[in-house]
Amino acid sequence: MADTPTFVIEDLHVAIDGKQILKGVDLTVSKGEVHALMGPNGSGKSTLANALMGHPRYTITGGRILYKGDDITGLTPDDRARRGMFLAFQYPLEIPGVKVRQFLRLALKSVRGQDVKVSEFRKLLNEKMQQLEVDPVFAERYLNEGFSGGEKKRNEVLQMAILQPEIAIMDETDSGLDIDALKVVSQGINALRGPDLGILLITHYQRMLNYITPDFVHVLVDGRVVKSGGKELALELEERGYEQFEQEKVLEAVS
Amino acid sequence: MTIQLEKVEAAKKEQLAVSSLGYQFGFHDEDAPKVSFDKGLSEDTVRRISEIKGEPKWMLDFRLRGYKQFLRKPVPTWGGDLSTLDFQDIHYFVKASDQQERSWEDVPEYIKDTFDKLGIPEAEKKFLAGVGAQYDSEVVYHNIREDLAKQGVIFCDTDTAVREHPELVQQYIGTIIPPGDNKFAALNTAVWSGGSFVYVPEGVHVEIPLQAYFRINAESMGQFERTIIIAEPNSFVHYVEGCTAPMYSSESLHSAVVEIIVKEGARVRYTTIQNWANNVYNLVTKRAVAYKNATMEWIDGNLGSKLTMKYPAVYLMEPGAHGEILSVAMATTGMHQDAGAKVVHVAPDTTSVINSKSISRGGGRTSYRGLVKVYPGAERSKSKVRCDALLLDEDSRSDTYPYMEIEDERVQIEHEATVSKIGEEQLFYLMSRGLTESEASTMIVNGFVEPIVKELPMEYAVEMNRLIQLQMEGAIG
After folding, report:
1. Minimum CA–CA partner of B448 in chain A
2. Residue B65 pLDDT > 70, yes or no?
3. Which residues of A touch B430 (CB under 8 A)?
4. Radius of gyration of chain B from Cα atoms?
């Protein structure tokens, strides 16, 4: 584990449209670590991902988010991105008329806080596209417009590779992928793993963890992390499902 | 028809002018009499305009027909609000020499500010503001003009054309848009001045886009230009008018007429970018006829003015004719862009495409108003209409008025219209990559207009994007 935790979520409570979804989430992710956050549908996984990145529709009703020791709970999404955070979207948005290349260059300029030379950018883009086995014509297409599910997810990983965040939240990056696409995307993520990157990998299924071995696994049920452990916890979940935890939740409610 | 090339060369007193950007040209007639007219319009005004220009009788008669029709025609009650337009409070004839008396100090601050932000060079700022700067670059002008002349192309202002090519002007003027077509076309007929005259001989492809600035002086940039383009069979020309920098005019009415004849197998593309100051009524009639296998393309960008009413039209007269109208309109505070397109399928096997994009913000209003008409017998005609509106805030407004008059059932007509707002989710997505809210909105808007902007000549596309960026600054509360 790194010396200072990069990313600390403390007792986070989040509501959307007046409905309380997260009811006190605690998590710490440091650079160099991969944390898998697993949970059944409706447990609050996507709410957590969006709230961590500062989506305006998600209201923080309690707790706080610390990034390198700074409280970033009230910051705008662009501010968080410039500090080194990244969210890989479950459903990446289509931006018609905006080329991937054009968008990525402006994004890189934004997170670096200075202009990026055309030649340098071209080199970086080509290198990362090769690494992720992305067809070069990709860069000339309009952002996510008409992309297949797999292409959208691969584009998210490409963006992550270019922007080089320190903390990446990946929201169900495996959803909607067939097995071949899952392999390619997982390989891409593995290629980005390293001592300078902390990853919070949010997933419903264990299958992605066959390709990306997490350092820690957490189980989110009904807006709370109910169990944390090592990678073996994912296998246990694969075998026994989320029912045991939901059962505990029911018992808790009764007692 | 024999074209006297020397006549093109004969405009000796014309003085060339080119801006430092290299694509905006103009020349100025030094012998032009200094004439100042009082405001207001009467038959006498019309006669005096004709007299000063030394026009032949047929042109005076043409003007007078226009004037009679102007009196007869009602002010349109549809479209935008014209109730504050006072025809007697307008100068109908202003010579360049008079316009130059306006001083730079009279130009509103916001116009100067926009010039600065767009990076318009000093000399050009004054020209655009109608302060009357002159440029000189004989070399560029002569090179281009010689190339054109070698090909037999006529490209001059319409006043010159009346003097030097009267037979051509007389043959075509008013044939596509007759004097009594509508009140503003009638007004233009009565008082027109300047505009471009373009004649492209059979089989000639003009490689460079012809730019209005090439030969326009302060006078012909005026309010009532009359443009005529004749493309003989199998020829091609791309004509570009306007500029993305704001055009400042102390006069509040701009009413142009553009007539285009595209003969068999020819293709004409006409690109307009207007960014009039926000005191201007921009009421323009543009119409083209396309004959057998001919193609007419209107590309129309409307960024400024108080009210624009403009519906470029294509009449598809013979089989195989194709018409295309691509337009972008952006309305900000105090602006109404009532723009659209009109396609008339007269003959069978004709095709048309209308693609309209509009953006409203800060209480601005855009309207798409379009007509697709198919005459009986125009079988196997195909028309595809698509209009997309983007609203940037709750105060802004967008309307769609698509009219269809289909009198033949054996046709294929498609219509698609969308109205969208910049989505919170789209903004969040872009902002999560480090873009500020303003950068994200601008990127979405630029992407929205990209299908049209990419059809513009490069320097216009670049300026258009910069202008949208300017308009978007401060758009986010």
Report:
1. A97
2. yes
3. 95, 103, 107
4. 22
Side chain identity at residue B403, one-letter code: Y
- In sequence order, what are the residues at sequence separation of 6 or more whose Cβ sits closer than 8 angstroms to the Cβ of residue B286? B256, B257, B258, B260, B270, B298, B310, B311, B312, B313
DSSP H or E segment with residue A190: helix A179-192
Q: Which neighbouring-strand residues pair with B287?
A: B259, B313
ipTM exceeding cut-off 0.90 for this assembly:
yes
pLDDT of B97-152, one tens digit each? 444 445 667 666 766 776 676 666 565 565 555 544 333 333 444 566 777 889 99
Rg (CA), chain A: 18
Residues of A with CB under 8 A from a CB of B: 50, 53-57, 76-78, 80-82, 86-87, 89, 92-93, 95-98, 103, 106-107, 110-111, 142-143, 159, 163
Interchain contact, B450 vs A98, CB within 8 Å: yes
pTM of the model: 0.80
Q: Among A101, A106, A166, which would you mutate to test the B interface (most chain B Cβ atoms within 10 Å of its Cβ)?
A: A106
Provide the 3-class DSSP secondary structure of residue B1. coil
Closest residue by Cα to residue B432 from A155, A111, A71, A70 = A111
Collect all residues of chain A within an 8 Å Cβ-Cβ radius of residue B426. 93, 95
Give me chain B's average pLDDT, please.
82
C-beta atoms of B451 and A55 within 8 A: no
Question: pLDDT tens, B205-258?
Answer: 998 888 765 433 343 345 888 999 999 999 999 998 876 556 666 668 889 999
Nearest CB neighbour to B433, from listed A50, A55, A159: A159
Say which DSSP state B205 is in. Answer: B
Specify the higher pLDDT residue, A81 or A5: A81
Please list, in sequence order, all residues whose beta carbon lies within 8 angstroms of the beta carbon of residue A38, skipping any fewer than 6 positions away: A202, A203, A204, A206, A217, A218, A219, A220, A234, A237
In angstroms, the CA B45 to CA A249 distance is 90
